[in-house]
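Re: your question about Anion-transporting ATPase

S., sorry for the slow reply, the queue was backed up all week. Below is exactly what I fed in.
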Amino acid sequence: MTGKGGTGKTTVAAALALGLAAGGHRTLLVEVEGRQGIAQLFGIDPLPYAEKRIATPARGDGEVRALAVDPEEALLEYLDMFYKLGAAGRALRKIGAIDFATTIAPGLRDVLLTGKVKEATTRSSDGKRAYDAVVLDAPPTGRIGRFLNVTAETARLAKMGPIKTQSDGVASLLRSPMTSVHVVTLLEEMPVQESLDAIAELTALNIPVGRIIVNAARPALLASGKVTKVELKRGLAAAGLPTDAATVNGLHAEAKAHLTRRELEESLRSELVELGRPMIELPLLAGGVDRDGLHELAGLLMSV
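Result:
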């Protein structure tokens, strides 16, 4: 799940994970940006570098586990897994070498983050995958192409060896039918433009794009394209409300602003529709995003 910052991609990712769990799927919800957004949404303590159960549906045997991938922890795990440097890796961390490595080589950082997601996705026991679905709350649209195109970044770091092997494995998974990158947007100019750019970039990289998810969509409050002061005054009177000039003028100004916004939203919606990709609209939650709101969004996501 990607989207411009502020579009609600973490909320939508969490709702999707809940919806999948309600359908009986064992689901892992992953974040990689260190914001602990999942913990905040579910009202729990910050997530450790471990897969932790955070939700179970009222019925069925599905569940949602969550994981916050930390690049330093991922590098320590990597060093231990491939080079048996568990104790030595922890010693390197104490002197700041691990932080230095993940900062100086951003390509390595992204390989480690995506590699951990790949491991969780492909892990199996007794011939059965650990998870039916993995939902990744990915970086925003402005960085999503570089984040997912790990092979290009890793080519600058290694031509062979475990890093190269892990990078190639991640690249294969991300370009396989197992993967879909869903793009979350608002009907505002900047988020829509970033969504269009991200979809074009991902398509060029041969990374499958899934749905366009228009979040926080507002209902049309006015049926017609024009509202006169006479109509407003008549309506106010019929409702037993004040009809003085200040009230009518203020309401008229708000109605014009609403219609202008709706016109812009329709234009932006048309741009998205022209892409010919599946699209779903999620409503603006008047009461804010709480657990009930997440379940409402989950139901809408799973109904299409």
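DSSP finds 13 helices and ten strands in the chain. The domain at 2-220+273-302 is CATH 3.40.50.300 (Rossmann fold).

Happy to talk it through on Thursday.
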